[in-house]
């Protein structure tokens, strides 16, 4: 049994306020316990804290005096030792981003990415509804670390997190003002260069060009971070890097919010520590609701893994990298045996093709072509050239667009060919499985259904 | 001698019109991605560029001889500043505007790698405005020559060529293949996805 | 690991609108996919092709093809 303690004294160099409190956490029969750090408020009484309760629970944020270069440096060092990695899917080391932005010339901007464009993931808007002050603390800490003059929280139009974040913002007096920007609800709009482009020109389209850390919003050095990453940052600032590393693994430290969906008993958002095997994560969600054949990890642009591979696979960046795969958006969709992986993939590819920004040829022509091939495959259309054509196209599209949208879609398609190999062969021979016509498991926005 | 200069001017004017027409036609085709086995795209591009320079050469002679000739009293400034000439101010003026545009086109194209792309593209499209000015200038300033049958025929051919090519370009834009719409129907499925609406936090 | 030796070409995927001049001038290192967009071979441009590469970069109608400084 693992008990993970919530807090300890922050190092003297960072604190000049009251000593942080200890947060009680669960004991769970499963090793790699359900870690409670970000969702402590909800676990406690089923609702978000207001500012006072939040400060009682986690302690006040260490005093962040603006302009004190030495302390900023120490904070970033602490984050580096903690090994915090981005929680938006790419897993980029946060301390490196902070260093790059802090070192760049100009008045920095912090952009908190709460868009969560992938429909398989609910963790960000859940976090913002249940712990809005943690996210806002994180933004404040990030602003301090890079000496930012402005901060923007990006949410999709119509996001359920809009009201809670506005309400929480109204209760605070942070040194750096935070504005909320509503972003068009397109899939690629939440990509970091697209957000920067949106805030600069109003067009939510990915761009090529200098990195945001050097020249981002309106040419200013910009830090773009996922809201969950910022929430973790807020806790590291209080409790330090050693505390942070008490959960997780050496290369993927800390806890993370995971969205588990599909054929499980209790689909939802869970806070787990990195290193938890996928089978344990599914157990947390009440286990499979029917016998499974595969899981999709990493969202719509992620990877299909047959259960035999997925079961013992720990959820960490390094274990996935060892298989040549990115960990991606932290979401898992469990696909039952009585479902058709080919048809699910075909639906997802059609959606992803439709969501192309339409700026780069290989994406705007390649994705619809691959989606069409998969649709033909799902329908069991006999076409001797189909698989060859598909393989060729899968080889030609990746790496030739301005953003990773086509690469992710192609990766998803390729993983389907491998994970559902028997099915694919049957479909290609004109014998589609009988599950192809049933209600879909991969969540997609209504219009694409 | 005077007559020779005047004839030279009118002659090179006609040749310039032909060359400019060919330049515009090739330019439009190039933008429309026309390519053939013997005329790959780079060839279209290169010939278009060379024709434009050849047009400039003939235009230089056309303007030079017109100014050198004392008959109509055309000054150098009349070639660049529109509507200030004593001789046929309107038609000469149109020619001057066309010449100014032509020079702007050539200079920006020579400096294409240093000019912002959007500005270059916008200015280059002004060629479609420049060419009609040249045609009208030719018909108007040509005087009695414009009534000659073969001159009329030349004008008609030039106008027809450009009209055809412009029409093709416009039709192209309407027909531009949108990324292939995913048409193959998926197996019929009831709408609605499982997890998102039912997701809750534990 | 070979050392990097010389300029290499790259294409800006947003600017590229598949005119295809580059593939005509540099068929040894650029081929077009089925939709007319360029696929570039990896690695630096061989010395024999550098002049062609420069010409291709200058000829690109949208200036999408770029030659990095060696």
TrEMBL record, chain B:
Chief localization: membrane
Topology with respect to the bilayer: Multi-pass membrane protein
Keyword Nuclease among record annotations: no
Keywords: Membrane, Transmembrane, Transmembrane helix
An annotated GO cellular component: membrane
Ranges where the Ferric oxidoreductase domain occurs: 12-134
The keyword Transmembrane belongs to this UniProt entry's keyword annotation: yes
Subcellular location: Membrane
Transmembrane segments: 90-111, 123-142, 148-167
Pfam families cross-referenced by the UniProt entry: Ferric_reduct
InterPro entries found in the cross-reference section: Fe3_Rdtase_TM_dom
Protein name: Ferric reductase like transmembrane component
From TrEMBL, chain C:
Cofactor: [3Fe-4S] cluster
GO MF assignments: 3 iron, 4 sulfur cluster binding; metal ion binding
Any one Pfam family match given in the protein's UniProt record, by short name: Fer4_15
Transmembrane found in the keyword field: no
Keyword Metal-binding listed: yes
Keywords: 3Fe-4S, Electron transport, Iron, Iron-sulfur, Metal-binding, Transport
Domain of life: Bacteria
PANTHER family in the cross-refs: FERREDOXIN
Name of the protein this chain belongs to: Ferredoxin
């Amino acid at each position: 049994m693992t008990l993970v303690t919530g807090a300890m004294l922050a190092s003297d160099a960072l604190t000049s306020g009251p000593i942080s409190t200890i947060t009680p956490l669960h004991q769970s029969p499963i090793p790699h316990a359900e870690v409670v750090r970000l969702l402590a408020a909800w676990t406690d009484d089923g609702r978000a804290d207001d500012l006072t309760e939040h400060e009682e629970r986690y302690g006040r944020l260490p005093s962040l005096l603006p302009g004190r270069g030495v302390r900023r440096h120490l904070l970033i060092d602490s984050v580096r030792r903690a090994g915090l990695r981005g929680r938006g899917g790419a897993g980029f080391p946060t301390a490196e981003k902070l260093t790059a932005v802090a070192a760049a010339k100009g008045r920095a901007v912090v952009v908190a990415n709460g868009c969560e464009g992938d429909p398989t993931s609910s963790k960000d808007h859940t976090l913002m509804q249940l712990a809005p002050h943690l996210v806002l603390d994180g933004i404040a800490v990030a602003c301090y670390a890079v000496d930012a003059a402005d901060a923007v929280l990006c949410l999709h139009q119509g996001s359920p997190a809009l009201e809670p974040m506005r309400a929480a913002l109204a209760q605070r007096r942070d040194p750096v003002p935070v504005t909320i920007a509503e972003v068009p609800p397109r899939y690629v709009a939440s990509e970091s260069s697209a957000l920067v482009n949106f805030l600069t020109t109003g067009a939510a389209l990915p761009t090529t060009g200098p990195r945001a850390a050097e020249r981002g919003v309106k040419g200013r050095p910009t830090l773009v971070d996922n809201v969950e990453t910022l929430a973790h940052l807020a806790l590291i600032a209080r409790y330090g890097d050693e505390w942070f590393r008490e959960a997780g693994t050496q290369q993927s430290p800390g806890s993370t919010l995971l969205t588990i969906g599909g054929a499980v008993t209790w689909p939802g958002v869970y806070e787990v520590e990195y290193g938890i095997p996928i089978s344990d994560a599914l157990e947390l969600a009440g286990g499979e609701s029917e016998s499974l054949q595969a899981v999709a990890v990493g969202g719509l642009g992620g990877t299909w893994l047959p259960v035999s591979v997925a079961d013992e696979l720990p959820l960490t960046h390094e274990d996935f990298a060892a298989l040549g795969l990115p960990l991606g958006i932290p979401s898992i969709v469990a696909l039952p045996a009585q479902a058709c992986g080919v048809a699910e993939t075909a639906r997802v590819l059609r959606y992803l093709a439709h969501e192309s920004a339409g700026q780069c040829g290989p994406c705007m022509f390649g994705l619809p072509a691959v989606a069409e091939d998969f649709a033909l495959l799902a329908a069991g259309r006999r076409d001797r050239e189909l698989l060859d054509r598909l393989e060729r196209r899968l080889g030609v599209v990746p790496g030739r667009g301005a953003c990773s949208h086509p690469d992710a879609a192609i990766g998803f398609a390729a993983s389907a060919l491998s994970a559902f190999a028997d099915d694919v062969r049957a479909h290609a021979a004109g014998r589609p499985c009988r599950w192809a016509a049933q209600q879909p498991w991969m969540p997609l926005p209504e219009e694409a259904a | 001698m005077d007559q020779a200069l005047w004839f030279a001017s009118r002659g090179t004017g006609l040749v310039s019109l032909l060359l400019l027409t060919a330049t515009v036609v090739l330019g439009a085709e190039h933008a429309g991605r026309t390519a053939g086995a013997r005329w790959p795209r780079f060839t279209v591009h290169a010939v278009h560029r060379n024709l434009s320079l050849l047009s400039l050469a003939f235009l230089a002679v056309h303007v030079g001889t017109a100014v050198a000739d004392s008959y109509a009293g055309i000054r150098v400034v009349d070639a660049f500043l529109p509507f200030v000439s004593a001789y046929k101010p309107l038609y000469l003026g149109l020619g001057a505007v066309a010449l100014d545009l032509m020079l702007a086109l050539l200079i920006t194209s020579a400096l294409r790698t240093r000019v912002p792309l959007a500005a270059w593209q916008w200015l280059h499209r002004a060629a479609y405005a420049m060419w009609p000015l040249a045609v009208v200038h030719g018909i108007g300033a040509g005087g009695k020559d414009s009534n000659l049958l073969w001159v009329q025929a030349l004008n008609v051919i030039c106008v027809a060529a450009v009209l055809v090519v412009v029409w093709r370009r416009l039709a192209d834009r309407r027909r531009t293949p949108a990324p292939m719409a995913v048409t193959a129907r998926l197996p019929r499925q009831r709408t609605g996805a499982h997890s998102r609406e039912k997701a809750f936090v534990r | 690991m070979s050392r990097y030796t010389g300029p290499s070409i790259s294409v800006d995927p947003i600017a590229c609108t598949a005119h295809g001049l580059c593939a005509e001038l540099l068929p040894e290192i650029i081929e077009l996919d089925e939709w007319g967009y360029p696929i570039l071979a990896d690695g630096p441009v061989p010395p024999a092709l550098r002049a062609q590469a420069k010409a291709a970069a200058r000829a690109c109608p949208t200036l999408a093809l770029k030659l990095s400084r060696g």
